[in-house]
Design a protein that fits this description.
The chain is of the alpha+beta class and 167 residues long. The protein contains three helices and eight strands. The relative contact order is 0.16.
Length: 167
């Protein structure tokens, strides 16, 4: 998901592009709560007629373990979704901040004049593999985006770099 951050301004240096890249999420927190409640009811309702019997105890144990496994996977999904990248392009600096799911930040900086965008259409790793290059270093951008979103991102970065170099 590409999100342009419009309301961010720096008085000292105008920004030509400021974007946040994040993985696409199919459920927000409200939708997740609804799914959680539906699954909890789905596990609980079949057990109600058997409460107090050995079958009810067995069903409760297996339903509880399955529900616990579901919660662990849901938590892992939310951790994966906390990864993001922020790109900022101004007249004198290109900054890319990559935030991992374990909260580790990686920062890449470059000069807009020397920074180049490369889109590798036939890459074995990803279709439309997008990288930024500058100072002999490369950084991968938007690996979690769809191939079409990476093309759109390349176009936006190229336009911002052209504006930064002409300013």
């Amino acid at each position: 998901m590409l999100k342009t951050l419009e309301n961010w301004t720096d008085k000292r240096e105008p920004t030509f592009l400021r974007m946040r890249l994040a993985p696409n999420r199919s459920l927000d927190s409200y939708g997740t709560k609804i799914v959680f409640l539906v699954i909890a009811c789905g596990f609980l309702l079949p057990i109600v007629p058997f409460i107090g019997s050995p079958i009810g105890t067995t069903l409760t144990i297996f339903s509880g373990l399955t529900f616990y496994l579901f919660l662990i996977m849901l938590q892992k999904n939310f951790q994966e979704g906390s990864t993001f990248e922020e790109i900022s392009i101004s007249k004198n600096k290109v900054i890319v901040v990559h935030q991992e799911k374990n909260k580790e930040q990686k920062i890449w900086e470059g000069n807009p004049y020397w920074t180049r965008v490369k889109l590798d259409i036939n890459n074995a790793k990803l279709k439309n593999y997008l990288t930024l290059a500058g100072k002999g270093r490369y950084i991968e951008l938007g690996a979690f985006l769809s191939p079409d979103e990476r093309i759109e991102l390349r176009d936006k970065i190229q336009n911002a770099l052209a504006k930064a170099n002409s300013a």
